[in-house]
C-alpha cells in the first residue's frame, strides 16, 4: 500500500498473530479465542503492517541534527500545548513474534515546530512490554521549514543493532514535498474527539518463531551470567553509572533496569564504552 490511503485491517496472518500477542501472559493458558489488542478508546489496533517478512522491515531514516542521548524514561511527553496524540503498537521480529524489552527512544518538535536542545521536552524513552507492546502519549508535532510533520524514534531489540527512523502522518500537504518522506512509515491516525490516536508496528530484522494463538507453558529464562565484570541483570542503573563487562568499562547513557540480553556490548544505546 502506498501514498496516504488509509490502511483497511482484514483477517490476515498478521491480524491473527496480533491476536495471539494480545493474550495476557500466564504459565498456562487454555482460552479458546484471544481478543485483539486495543487502543485506549477500545478500538482494535490496526494491522500495520500486514505481514512480517524481510520485505516488511521498518525502513531506516536519518537521525537528523536534534537527537540527544539521555532522555528520561517515560511513556508520556505532554510537555506543552497542542493536539493530544496517543501512539500504540508492537515491536515484532521477522516471524511477527513480539519483542519484549525493546528500547524505543522518541523525540519530536513542539507545537511550534521547535526542538528542545537544552532540556528534555518532547523527549523520552521506554521499553516494550512482554507482548512487545508500547504506548506513547504526546502531542501532534508542529511544522518547520523544509519538513513535513514527523516523529523521530530509535528502536533496539536486546542485543541487536539500533534502528533509527521517523514516523509520518497521513494526508499532510507537505508529504509530497518532503524528500525524506516515506509512505512505508505512515502511521494509521484517527480523530477521536479533540485528540488523535495512531498505531504503528515496528518490524525489526530479528529472526524467531511466530507466536501461537494457543500459548503453551515455557520455561523462565535463566539470567545471563556477567562477563567477568560488575554489570548484572535486573539492576536499576542511573545515567552516568559505570560498570565493567568483559574487562571493559562502560558508562550508562540512559537510566534503565538491566535485563538478560542487555549486556553493555549489546546495547550501545544504553552503554557508552569508556
UniProtKB/TrEMBL annotation:
One of its GO terms (biological process) is carbohydrate metabolic process. Belongs to the intradiol ring-cleavage dioxygenase family. One of its GO terms (molecular function) is ferric iron binding. Residues 41-61, 205-227 are annotated as: Disordered. InterPro entries: CBM5/12, CBM_sf_5/12, Intradiol_dOase_C, Intradiol_dOase_core, Intradiol_RC_Dioxygenase, TAT_signal. It comes from the Bacteria. Residues 228-274 form the Chitin-binding type-3 domain. This is Dioxygenase. Keywords: Dioxygenase, Hydrolase, Oxidoreductase, Signal. One of its GO terms (cellular component) is extracellular region. Residues 1-37 form the signal peptide. The lineage of its organism: Bacteria, Bacillati, Actinomycetota, Actinomycetes, Micromonosporales. It comes from Catellatospora bangladeshensis. Pfam families: CBM_5_12, Dioxygenase_C.
Amino acid at each position: 500500500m502506498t501514498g496516504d490511503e488509509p490502511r483497511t485491517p482484514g483477517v490476515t496472518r498478521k491480524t491473527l498473530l496480533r491476536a495471539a500477542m494480545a493474550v495476557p501472559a500466564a504459565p498456562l493458558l487454555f482460552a479458546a479465542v484471544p481478543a485483539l489488542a486495543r487502543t485506549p478508546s477500545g478500538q482494535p489496533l490496526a494491522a500495520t503492517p500486514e505481514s512480517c517478512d524481510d520485505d516488511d522491515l521498518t525502513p531506516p531514516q536519518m537521525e537528523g541534527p536534534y537527537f540527544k542521548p539521555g532522555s528520561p524514561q517515560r511513556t508520556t511527553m505532554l510537555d506543552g500545548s497542542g493536539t493530544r496524540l496517543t501512539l500504540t503498537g508492537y515491536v515484532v521480529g521477522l516471524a511477527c513474534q513480539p519483542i519484549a524489552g525493546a528500547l524505543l527512544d522518541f523525540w519530536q518538535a513542539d507545537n511550534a515546530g521547535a526542538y528542545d536542545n537544552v532540556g528534555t521536552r518532547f523527549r523520552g524513552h521506554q521499553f516494550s512490554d512482554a507482548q512487545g507492546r508500547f504506548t506513547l502519549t504526546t502531542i501532534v508535532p508542529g511544522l518547520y521549514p523544509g519538513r513535513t510533520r514527523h516523529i523521530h524514534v530509535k528502536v533496539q531489540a536486546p542485543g541487536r543493532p539500533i534502528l533509527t527512523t521517523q514516523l509520518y502522518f497521513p494526508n499532510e500537504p507537505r508529504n509530497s514535498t518532503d524528500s525524506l518522506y516515506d509512505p512505508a512509515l505512515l502511521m494509521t491516525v484517527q480523530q477521536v474527539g479533540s485528540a488523535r490516536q495512531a498505531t504503528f508496528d515496528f518490524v525489526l530484522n530479528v529472526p524467531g518463531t511466530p507466536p501461537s494463538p494457543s500459548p503453551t507453558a515455557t520455561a523462565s529464562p535463566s539470567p545471563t551470567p556477567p562477563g567477568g565484570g560488575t554489570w548484572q541483570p535486573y539492576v536499576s542503573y542511573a545515567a552516568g553509572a559505570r560498570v565493567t563487562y568483559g574487562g571493559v568499562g562502560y558508562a550508562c547513557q540512559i537510566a534503565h533496569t538491566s535485563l538478560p540480553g542487555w549486556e553493555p556490548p549489546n546495547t550501545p544505546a544504553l552503554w557508552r564504552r569508556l
